[in-house]
Amino acid sequence: MPLIDISRTLYTGAPHWPGDQAVDFALGARIAAGASCNLGRLSLSVHNGTHADAPFHYNDRGATIDTLAPDLF
To answer: What percentage of residues in the chain have a pLDDT greater than 70?
Structure first.
């Protein structure tokens, strides 16, 4: 089965569910500031961007995402 990439780009200020944590990307270290490399930090909710909700999201007894077969998607 061919895969179709429907991924949405994550970026600071990307749309998010009201009341949920927004996406935030920042450089924590920069070569220009004397660091040995550029290091990024990404902070977000698992509900940001392209994702699938497992049955557990709506039901405490539902299956978690790690137990769902990839071919379901």
So the answer is: 100
Instruction: Give catalytic status of residue 51 as yes or no.
Output: no
Whether the predicted pLDDT of 1 surpasses 90:
no
- Max alpha carbon distance in the chain (Å)? 51
Task: Say if CB 45 and CB 21 are below 8 A apart.
Answer: yes
The catalytic position among 16, 47, 51, 57 is 57
Q: What are phi and psi of 39, to 5 degrees?
A: -125, 130
Find, among 58, 51, 48, the residue nearest to 23 by Cα.
48
Report the C-alpha gap between 57 and 46 in whole angstroms: 11
